[in-house]
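Sample entry as discussed:
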Amino acid sequence: MSDDATGGDSGADAGPIDDPDLDALRRDLDQIKTAMGIEDRYPGQRRLWLVNGGVVGGAAILANVIFARSLSNALYIAIWFVLVVLAGVLQWRSAAANDTDEREPTPSWRVVFGTLIAGWVVLTAIASSIFGDVPGVVQGAYFFSLSITVLGMGYLLAGTLLRAHSIRARDRYPYYAAGVWMLVLAFFMPFVEFLQYFGYAIFGGLFLVHGVVTYYLLTYRWN
């Protein structure tokens, strides 16, 4: 009798099981997501650094060779047209793939980069109408620096967006670093004569190195 009574008392003392704390579970889930690498959350992003580095960097260097040797302007324009279209398609497809439905609202990649492209078109059109008497070398340097500025802003915004999408900090650093050096180069290019002639190749080399180093770090060091 005493054993039964004891067992009954133990069951009574245990009481009902509490419901799980949903807020605590959400916080734990957010912490786990914050620790995720960019490749875990968005497969293929590491490879994009390598692909874009090779395509954009190589095209910039080739364009500088054509410019320095005074070759056909049509060839120069064709290279940049293909470059812009290819880079745009790659980034747009990546943005579309990353705009997934999530529990909490996050900024849209397509809206952000679409806005940047629209702004670049407007700024280029405005500047074109007031550069009639400016030497062609300076015009080219200015328009290229304008493009680098928009691209650098895009990388800085990408780093911020990745934070909103819960990507760990070290995987965002390459975006911030790319944005900073692009803005610095864009600022000096129209004013420094050496950069007016060779800034395209310098940009291409830096972009290529940045892409390769970032791919290496994300794949072999920070994975």
Observations:
- The radius of gyration is 26 Å.
- Residues 41-221 form one domain.
